[in-house]
Amino acid sequence: AESEDIGCHRRFQAAVNVIQKLPKNGAYRPSYEMMLRFYGLYKQAVSGPCRASRPGFWDPVGQYKWDAWKRLGEMSCGAAMMAYVEEMKKVAQEVIDTMPVNEKTA
Ligand code: ST9
């Protein structure tokens, strides 16, 4: 339904904004694997399937990013948005679960 599409789009945009506003160096250190997962889903959602040619050996970071995007194949924009939101929920829950107990205020 159209209203579901809009809701999906809003949740994706909210998740994107949260990640863009995170400090570069915080207490939480995402792995490269995790960052690449978010990157691939973001590109798939925003730009669609990867049609660019793979960067050369002089750009290893570009290669990792390209690979993360390319491996999503023909995944739809909507599926990529939903997967991005689900991934963020999963990570947020992990952060909550591993938060030191003495940080609790209640
Ligand atoms: C901390 C706080 O310690 C406490 C913990 C809270 C934990 C909450 C849990 C939430 C999940 C955390 C997971 C983080 C993983 C992030 C991975 C992101 C890749 N999503 O505009 P550019 C692309 S926090 C994905 O030049 P910016 C964009 O297309 C401590 N990709 O640079 C471009 O590629 P290309 C840890 C995105 O705006 C490339 O990224 N802090 C997104 O300066 C660069 O974009 C962090 O991990 C997006 N939303 O940087 C910081 N937006 O050129 C996380 C853009 O090929 N945030 N792209 O098109 C960042 O690293 C940056 O804000 C950024 C954008 C990379 C997402």
Bound molecules: stearoyl-coenzyme A
What percent strand? under 5%
Shape by Cα distribution: flat
Report the radius of gyration as a whole number of Å: 16 Å
**CATH domain class name:** Mainly Alpha
What sequence of helices (H) and strands (E) makes up the elements? HHHH
- As for the number of domains, it is 1
State the assembly state of the protein chains: single chain
Return residue spans where pLDDT drops below 50 for at least 5 consecutive residues.
Answer: none
Indicate the topology.
Layout: H1 2-21, H2 32-47, H3 60-70, H4 77-98
Helix pairs in contact: 1-4, 2-3, 2-4
The structure holds stearoyl-coenzyme A (ST9).
What does this structure look like?
- The protein is mostly helical.
- It has a single domain (2-103), classed as Acyl-CoA Binding Protein, CATH 1.20.80.10.
- It contains four helices and no strands.
- It has helices spanning 2-21, 32-47, 60-70, 77-98.
- The termini are far apart.
- The structure holds stearoyl-coenzyme A.
- Stearoyl-coenzyme A binds at residues 16, 19-20, 22-24, 26-28, 30, 34-35, 38-39, 42, 65, 88, 91-92, 95.
